[in-house]
């Protein structure tokens, strides 16, 4: 009997966690879509910058 309670409870927790993660992914998609805006020209730039006394390469590109 205790095993059944634990099994059903674990299934309920798994279901609740799955629904919560699916909702989070859906909201992230909606926010990302609202923040994205098409640019008239492509952006592609790379350069060395000094961060903490160390030269580091950074590259900024937009999506295709």
Structure in words:
By secondary structure, the chain is of the alpha+beta class. Helices cover 53% and strands 25% of the residues. It has one helix and two strands; from the N terminus they run H-E-E. The protein has a two-stranded antiparallel ribbon with strand order 1-2. Strand 1 and strand 2 (54-61) form a beta hairpin. The protein starts with a helix and ends with a strand. 0% of the residues are buried.
User: In angstroms, what separates the terminal alpha carbons?
Assistant: 57 Å
Poorly predicted residue ranges = none
Instruction: Report the portion of residues in β strands.
Output: 25-35%
Oligomer: single chain
Helix content: 40-55%
Describe the global form: elongated
Structural class: alpha+beta
What radius of gyration results from the CA coordinates?
Answer: 23 Å
Count the DSSP helices.
1
> Average pLDDT, to the nearest integer?
79
Summarize the helix and strand pattern as letters.
HEE
Please provide the count of β strands.
2
